[in-house]
Every structure is written in C-alpha cells, then in structure tokens.
Design a protein that fits this description.
alpha+beta; 5-stranded mixed β-sheet; 5 helices; 13% helix; PASTA_dom
Length: 336
C-alpha cells in the first residue's frame, strides 16, 4: 500500500474519498516535520515480546525468554554494557548479545505490509534475517536502534495491531541491549522514529498508535528512555509545538495559540460542507479542513505560525481528542 496525499482533496459525502482519507493516516509513516506531499501520519505498531534479565528490574541476570516469551534461553552479556535507564513504567532495558528468532506468526503480514520498513543498516538486516518484521530504525548516540515485531492483526481503515515487539540497540550488527515491556504493562513497545539530532521517539502498538517515550544516548556510555517531551522544536528550532496527543481539540487550540499557532479559517460553499464540518464551524472551529464519515472518524484542523503550517488530526466524536499532528515548514522561497 502506498502513501496517499489527499488531505485537501477530500470532500464530505464521497464515501470512496473518505475511506481513502482514513487509509492515508496509516500509510504515511513519515517524520514529524513533513513535506507538502506527506502531510500527516498515524503510526501503528507492536506489543512487546517478553525478554527478562533487565538492568532496571530485579530479574535473573543470566536468562532471556525465547521469542514467544515463554521459556528462558541463555543470553551472553556484554563485557562493558552501557548504563541503561528507563523512566517509563513497565518498559525494561536489558543488556544482551543474543537475538531470538521470530515466532512463526511474524510471517503472516497480509494487510499490514505498509507499516514495515526495508532494513537500512547491518543491524536492521540482522533483525530481518531472524524473521522479524522491521518497523523502524534510528541513530541514537553511538548505537543503531531497530524496532521489530512478531505478530500482526489487521484492523479497519488501513490500521493494524502489531504485537511481540522490541527495540534492539546495536554496535554495527552486534546486539548490545533490548527494550521490552514487562508482563501486564498497560501499553506496548512499537516503532522507533528518528527525531532531530540523535534522539528518537518510541510509539506504542495499538491500532491507533500514540507516542510512548523518547530515547536518548550519552555517546556510548548510557541509553535513557523517558516520557515524551512536553514540546518539540520544529523547523530547525524556529518554532515549538506542544505535546497535544490525546488532548481535546478545544484545549489543544488554546495551547497552540499560546505557542504562536493561529487557526486558518476555511472559506467553503454549501456543497463543500458536510454535516460534521458544518457542526464544527458552528461551534467556532473555523479551521476544520475535512472530516471522514467512516472508520475512525478523523477530522483535520489547520493552523499557521511564523515557521510554517500545522495540521492536527482528531479521532472519533465527543470532545475530539488529538490523534496526530505534523508541521510543514515554510521555505525561503515561499516566505517571500
């Protein structure tokens, strides 16, 4: 499945277009600052395979469960592993050198192929060679982070639940640590995504994926996983975008205004306005651009700031919580 660029081509009432509008969110897994051709994305990835022996928990130091998370297998420790720190409840970090082979369920990928990545590095090829589905890669300090999953469940509107996932941290093609979720954790490990510099963001594994954590490294000395930053610098540091995920659109709108992002009012004819859009405009949300009439019920809202434009996508009805957002930076050419 290929990405769609239809956010400004959807018109309410066309069932085929609104279905494509839904699918676009799940086929377009680009970076958070995006081009005009890649306006938004909804990340959909993974639920952790259980690997014990964490440097952050009182578990045995010489065992690691197999890929299915059932019986333990020996794992060789690195002589001088990096210091591993997790500030995210349920997310564990383990120093290991042995990557288990993927479970048989990793081969059944029908309908979810668009969420996987072609391996970009020796580390990624090592993971894929053991049968896992690679979902992302990032350079974090002196380490290559590779996210991968071992089970997929197809959902509606191009979405998938991806399970049995981990993140491997590598020197070259040599595994030195794994990130995983302990049994009973409320959320799941998902896709790793490069941010500015050498930091990365980790996404959870629900059908409608949300950020789980930020990952940082201190050279080769430490790997730290912590809560998502309260705000992100975008457009080479020219603007800030606050963390809006899960926030009702009314509250998000107020917070955006405090950071210099103003609503972009849309002028429409009666034929271009469906019931959902008309109701939102009546409530004062004149920046609403489009709404999907099926599936997850996405709506898109547009804002402008000194550094560019910001598209915000909400999901469902009620108070319309924010599901995703992305920035299109203003270039010198279109700034004139």
């Amino acid at each position: 499945m290929t990405p769609f660029n239809i956010f400004h081509n959807i018109r309410a009432g066309n069932s085929n277009d609104t279905d494509e509008f839904e699918k676009a969110h799940f086929c377009n897994a680009s970076a958070r600052t995006v081009s005009k051709e890649d306006r938004m994305s909804i990340r959909l990835v993974t639920l952790a395979v259980l690997l014990t022996g964490s440097a952050c928990s009182p578990q045995p130091a010489d065992t690691t469960p197999t890929a299915t998370g059932t019986s333990p297998a020996k794992a060789t420790r690195v002589d001088q592993p990096p210091h591993l720190v997790s500030g995210v409840p349920g997310l564990m970090l383990t120093s290991v050198q042995v990557l288990p082979s993927a479970p048989a369920s990793a081969a059944a990928r029908d309908g979810c192929e668009h969420l996987f990545s072609k391996p970009e590095s020796p580390a990624g090829r090592e993971v894929a060679g053991r049968g896992w589905a690679v979902t992302g890669e990032a350079q974090i300090g002196g380490y290559r982070a590779v996210s991968f999953v071992g089970k997929m469940e197809r959902g509606t509107s191009g979405s998938c639940l991806l399970e049995k996932g981990n993140i491997g941290f590598f020197h070259g093609d040599k595994l030195i640590a794994l990130a995983w979720m302990e049994p009973g954790a409320r959320r799941s490990i998902a896709r790793v995504e490069q941010r500015g510099g050498q930091d990365a963001r980790l996404w959870d594994g629900d059908f409608l994926s949300q950020p789980l954590a930020d990952i940082r490294a201190d050279g080769n000395r430490a790997i730290t996983v912590g809560p998502m930053a309260k705000q992100d610098l975008v457009c080479d540091g020219a603007a800030q975008v606050p963390n809006l995920y899960g926030m009702p659109i009314a509250k998000a709108r107020t917070l955006l205004a405090q950071h210099g992002w103003k609503p972009v009012t849309r002028n429409r004819t009666a034929d271009e306005t469906g019931y959902a859009i008309a109701d939102l405009v009546k409530q004062g949300f004149t920046e609403v651009d489009d709404c999907s009439g099926t599936g997850f019920g996405f709506c898109r809202f547009d804002y402008a700031g000194s550094a560019g434009t910001l598209g915000v996508t909400t999901v469902g009805d009620g108070d319309l919580p924010v599901a995703d957002y992305a920035v299109q930076c203003q270039t010198k050419a279109n700034a004139k």
